[in-house]
Amino acid sequence: MKILSIAFAGLIGALSLTSFSASAADAGLKTVAALHQNKAALAGQTIKAQGKVVKVNNNIMGRNFVHVQDGTGDANSNDLLITSKQTANVGDQVTISGVVAINRDFGSGYSYPLLIEEASITPKK
Predict the structure, then answer these.
(1) Cα–Cα nearest to 27, from 6, 47, 51
(2) Alpha carbons 52 and 38: distance in angstroms, whole number
(3) pLDDT tops 80 at residue 67
């Protein structure tokens, strides 16, 4: 019985280590709500986030506009707008990396308090 307990403890330890490694890899990810909340401090910095693509507008002003949500935030802070040369499909789970821009005004009424520009979009598998 003691051998079984030691084997079980080893298995639990291995599972915890695997879990910790996955969490450490995700540690650099920002939530959509946190990006909205800390946008001024993050301006000009490259960030990573992940979520589900909820809207896509391709080929506008030489870039694609992709909306991502991760379930965080309220009605005013639950959507992250990304511009990229890459695109994605609505429903895709993606990880994005790009530069935080605040108060970006494209003119003609298209002004965004938070925008992630020049983003890379990686589909999650």
Answers:
(1) 47
(2) 21
(3) yes
